[in-house]
Amino acid sequence: MVARQLEEQIVGRFPVGRRLRVLDVGMGRGTQALRLARAGHQVTGVEQDATMISAAREAFAGEPEGIRERMRIIEGHAGDTGVHFLPGSFDVVLCHGVLMDVEEPDALLAGMARMLAPGGLLSLLVRNGDAPAMRAGLSGDWAGALAGFCTTAYGLKRLTSTLAGIGAPLHTWYGVRVFTDTAAADAVFPDDLDALLAVEDRAGRTDPYRGVAALLHLCGVRG
Q1: CA gap 221, 43 in Å, rounded
Q2: How far apart (Å, rounded) are the C-alpha atoms in residues 22 and 42?
Q3: Which long-range contacts (CB under 8 A, 24 or more apart) does 195-201 make?
Q4: Residue in 166, 167, 135, 164 with CA at minimum distance from that of residue 148
Q5: Residue of 104, 100, 79 whose CA lies nearest to 214
Q6: 136: left (phi > 0), else alpha (psi -120 to 50), else beta?
Q7: Among residues 103, 90, 108, 100, which one has the least CA distance to residue 19?
Q8: pLDDT tens for each residue of 120-148
Q9: What domains are there in the chain, each with its CATH number?
Q10: For residues 176 and 212, what is the distance between their CA atoms, to the nearest angstrom?
Q11: What angle do CA 203, 170, 76 make, to 5 degrees?
């Protein structure tokens, strides 16, 4: 879902065929970085976890030389972008699944916004602070659901305000894992996977469903 949504935003914002400068902060195993490099973009990933870096390098090693040469990994913390890059160095900055583990997310967000060239796209995937009680409640974990109401995690309203304050106001947003968040990690893909994806895609764009998704995918644009 996130890859599909990100591609939609890139196609709608940049000229077809333009090779973009992409920064993936907290790259993980490099799934999004590799996909974007395959699409012809120049991708730099920042990652501090040695296991993740090893997995990413192994994945990159299996690619043709033309794709490998468009990819670069920098070992470092997500908050150190200002140490490695000049302001305005990138057309697209990704930060997927990182903010929830950072002590000072506002500072990290501001640093990433500075990396964007004017008109650049900031793509964030975060845990939905407005709906932490949903999964526990749907599974009958009432104590967990009650605890979820007391979360201090980022919600849509706070993120919208933060993005406006750092000069990359919210352009659009999606819900991710609206109906499927309660599925077990080892669940087998259903036979009607295409239908499931179509439902998740529709729900992730539609109120009120997207507002209670497990994750939020927010896209800000640098002014």
Answers
A1: 19
A2: 6
A3: 197/1, 200/1, 200/176, 201/1, 201/4
A4: 135
A5: 100
A6: alpha
A7: 90
A8: 999 999 999 999 899 899 889 999 999 99
A9: 1-222 (3.40.50.150)
A10: 9
A11: 100
In the block, tokens 């000072």 appear at 104
Cβ pair 126, 152 in contact under 8 A: no
Q: How many CA atoms lie within 13 A of 31 on its CB side?
A: 6
Cα dihedral 206/155/213/184 (nearest 10): 170
Using one digit for the tens of pLDDT, what is the confidence trace for 47-79?
999 999 999 999 999 999 999 999 999 999 998
Picking from 177, 124, 132, the residue whose alpha carbon sits closest to that of residue 153 is 132
Degrees to nearest 5, angle at CA 203 with 125 and 147: 60
Q: In what order do the strands lie in the sheet with 170-176?
A: 71-75, 42-47, 21-25, 90-96, 116-127, 215-221, 170-176
| 3-class SS string, the chain | CHHHHHHHHHHHHCCCCCCCEEEEECCCCCHHHHHHHHCCCEEEEEECCHHHHHHHHHHHHCCCHHHHCCEEEEECCHHHHHHHCCCCCEEEEEEECCHHHCCCHHHHHHHHHHHEEEEEEEEEEEECCCCCHHHHHHCCCHHHHHHHCCCCCCCHHHHHHHHHHCCCCEEEEEEECCCCCCCCCCCCCCCCHHHHHHHHHHHCCCCCHHHHCCEEEEEEECC
d(CA 143, CA 20): 47
At 42, the pLDDT band (50, 70, 90 cuts) reads: very high
